[in-house]
Amino acid sequence: MSSPATISSFFYFIALSSSFFLSSSLENNNNKHTTTVNSLNIPSAAAEIELVNPKLPPRSLSLTSSKKFEGSSNLIHLRYHMGPVLSSSPINIYVIWYGRWSRPHKSLIRDFLNSISDAKAPSPSVAEWWRTASLYADQTGANVSRSVLIAGEYSDSKYSHGQHLTRLTIQDVIASAARSASFPVDHKNGMYLVLTSHDVTMQDFCRAVCGFHYFTFPSMVGYTMPYAWVGQSGKQCPEVCAYPFALPGYMGHGGPGELRPPNGETGVDGMVSVIGHELAEVVSNPLINAWYAGEDPTAPTEIGDLCEGLYGSGGGGGYIGQVMRDREGKTYNMNGKGGRKFLVQWIWNPNLKACSGPNSVD
């Protein structure tokens, strides 16, 4: 889910497959590995929140000597390749709404983006999650900015480039939107975020990617700027791109059960996590020459890819880890602006050399 040449959902399907086989084995051989629920020691205003860790795997399944189970490995070599990161403050996001979007769905995504810089949200928060992204720096020592701003929006509700897009025509969508909305050429601070509605198909969507990022071509857009694309999977493939709010059929009797989305929107709640994944990778690797693992820049393994499917402590091998559940049964791991709650995957922490998030308990 990174550059156009990356089939990073490979990790995703490995995680799902692992969940099926590992959980089936645990159920057959050791019935004590079932869902665990613990009460949180929290203020009375949120006294009915629980910690939930669906089918936590035993430590013996870990393939690393690290005491941190969540994605840690002595074999992962995330390296800096001397390119820029988005360090100028604020990071300006220019949102392109492609297709028909309802106001509630737009509001949900805006609230997530605005939560990145909201220091007032209670812990664990989206702003705390973003601090991990801000640990990445360029060769001058400038870190990724902690300040993120929605600097502009454009709605293309008439599907100006059709309802089927490709990795190349997404550049046409950006070019048209930038001209129509008179977006500035924001080389230093800016990035585009293209969000397609549930009725728009994309090359490789649901099959190989849920989102990706790259940069614009001067020959098509007129200049080079990083961008990310994420699709709304609610009606096309929620079991792939909105997991764990929807499950593949083959996981019906193995792995964690289907979880209730924090805002009651399976497709858009799932989309929020993918947006978080892609934003973290854009800011740390905007031109595909900064932070990534592996030797092939056309297929980099980035800080979101390394933590695919991990949302809490104890996660790994297809297990999402320990998350929170409110009194309505909705699942989340981060608080956001205006009382919003989100379930967002963790990202790779270069200091811990493991996946981390604000809801970590180890």
UniProtKB/TrEMBL annotation:
InterPro entries: EXORDIUM-like (IPR006766)
Signal peptide positions (record): 1-19
Domain of life: Eukaryota
Gene Ontology CC entries for this record: apoplast
One Pfam family hit: Phi_1
Subcellular location per the Swiss-Prot or TrEMBL entry: Secreted, Extracellular space, Apoplast
Sequence similarity: Belongs to the EXORDIUM family.
Protein name in the entry: Protein EXORDIUM-like
Originating species: Arabidopsis suecica (Swedish thale-cress)
